[in-house]
Amino acid sequence: KRSRTTWFAGILGVLALFASFGKEFPVLYGPMFKLLPFFNKFRAPNTILILLEFSIAVLAGIGLIGLLNLNREKLDKALLKKLQNYLFAFGGFLVLLFLYLIAAKSSILGSIAASGKVNNPVFQEQAYKMAVNDGLKALILFAIAFGTIWLYLKRSIQSGALKWTLLILVIVDLWMVDFKIIQPKPQASEKSFFQQTDVVKFLKQDNSLYRIMPVLDNKPANWYMYFLIQNMYGYHAAKIEIYQQMLAESGFPRSFFMTYVKPVMQNGRQGMAYRSAQEINPTERHFHQVLLNLLNVKYVLSPYPVPDSVFSVVFSGQRKKVLENRDVLPRAFFVDSLKVLHGKTAIFSRMKQRDFNPAAEAVIEENPPFGIQPGTGNRVQVTKYGIQRIDLSASVKQPAQLVLSEVYYPAGWKAFVDGTPVKIYKTDYVLRSIFLNPGEHTIQFIFKPRAFKLGLMITIIALVLLIGLIGVGWRKSVH
Q1: Sheet of 420-422: strands edge to edge?
Q2: Can the peptide bond before residue 253 be classed as cis, meaning omega within 30 degrees of 0?
Q3: Strand pairing category for 420-422 and 413-417
Q4: DSSP code for 37
Q5: HSE on the CB side for 11, CA within 13 Å?
Q6: Assigned domain for 330 exists
Q7: Which of 325, 360, 380 is the endpoint of a domain?
Q8: Which secondary-structure segment (H or E) carries 171?
Q9: Both 54 and 177 in a single domain?
């Protein structure tokens, strides 16, 4: 008889398996995506496989307990035959699956190629070999487990031998996966990996607020973070959509360099050559410059200089050159005018126009609280800069719009002027701004997400209840 726990774990595992197929199994995935709360927040559908792994572990534990609780002395032949049939059926399925992998190699490789996800034939072959190796490992592990369980049922070994054998098999199974991921490195290797390069030493001499943009860089995307150097490009699994859209529109960082160079054939081999002035796309160049200025990118790290008067080589390292952007905007600045536009296409189209100057004009997506005047005479200074709080002081002569070169993220960031909350406006599609009246002001941008407060409150309440239940249980046991 199956327990409720067994049925729950079994159904949960099956649902998780089919849900992990994502759009390939729309009958289940479609309704879950549209109707199940928070399900559409998954970055990738296959992350739900953790529930399948959990279910299998629970079912395996229940099965092992059932085996150990069997009275082998009174085990009738019918039940023994039933258990034998289960084992042979599962083993036969694994054998057939493995034989299919071997016999259908060309078909499997064709399916991998047709998917378009792995285009390199070498990688396709590697993926196939990994599947075959995993199938062989599964057969070997099952054969050992099958033999051990069968010997236990036939009373040839004791329960201790069964437990230890299965435990060792689990450890070996986990180790064969984990050793590829967990690779302890000696401390000397870590120090060597994060050793300061000549470029890093040069950048650390600049104490101002700025960002860099590495192009054609051999370092990992977030390598410069180790040295507290802010990078306009990096990697994070949960990407902010508007920033990702900006990167896609611009093609940064690679497209910046490709604006100035082109692929050519040299002595039968593909190489690169600088484009002539006539070959450089003026709209693309202008759009790149607008974004670099807005994002406070003061330095571009490149193995080669670029033929552009805006970028001058200020340092030549062993492998990279540091190009300074002469038109970079500060982290916070005032604009002279604004324009209200709606939608990504309209905003990016305006920013690509040759007469768009990000230092003078800002684009917002809703009506401003009041009109602004040219920012001549206005002053702003960043007095404190942290990952969760940014403080500024401003002296404003005329009604003004202050742009902060930080990503617009209304889910957590709040703005305060002289202690009073003010509205943050989405600006130039990815940045944020506020409006200021004339006068001397202290400004704070503080990260205070409501979800964090709610989560903290739930955690505290749950902890108090848990402590209370433990206390009640202890008192009952004492009395």
Answers
A1: 379-385, 389-396, 439-447, 413-417, 420-422
A2: yes
A3: antiparallel
A4: T
A5: 7
A6: no
A7: 325
A8: helix 159-181
A9: yes
Identify which of 56, 407, 443 has the alpha carbon closest to the alpha carbon of residue 239: 407
In this structure, the dihedral spanned by the alpha carbons of residues 262, 263, 264 and 265, taken in order and rounded to 10 degrees, is: 170
Query: Using an 8 Å Cβ cutoff, are 227 and 201 in contact?
Result: no
CATH code for the domain in which residue 413 is found: 2.60.40
Last residue of a domain, one of 325, 345, 366: 325
Position 406 in a domain:
yes
Tell me which residue range forms the domain holding 318: 197-325
**Judgement on whether residues 58 and 172 belong to the same structural domain of the protein:** yes
* Same domain for 313 and 375: no
Task: Give dist(CA 39, CA 387) in Å, integer.
Answer: 29
Which parts of 212-266 fold into alpha helices (H)?
241-250, 254-258
8 A C-beta contact, residue 147 and residue 153: no
CA distance 363 to 357: 11
**5 to each of 13, 19, 51, 199, how far by Cα in Å?**
12, 21, 14, 59
Same domain, 298 and 203: yes
Asked whether residue 394 is domain-assigned, the answer is yes
- Cβ-count burial of 26 within 10 angstroms (0-12 exposed, 13-18 middle, 19+ buried)? exposed
Do 365 and 340 contact (CB within 8 A), yes or no? yes
Determine the pLDDT at residue 187: 63
The single residue listed with the structure tokens 């595992």 is 13
Residue type at 255 in one-letter notation: S
**pTM for this prediction:** 0.72
Instruction: Summarize the confidence of residues 274-289 as an average pLDDT.
Output: 94
At residue 186, the pLDDT reads 67
Edge-to-edge order in the sheet of strand 337-340: 332-335, 400-404, 431-436, 425-427, 361-364, 337-340
If asked whether residues 205 and 172 sit together in one domain, one would say no
Mean pLDDT across 27-52: 81
Residues 6+ apart with CB under 8 A from 142: 90, 91, 94
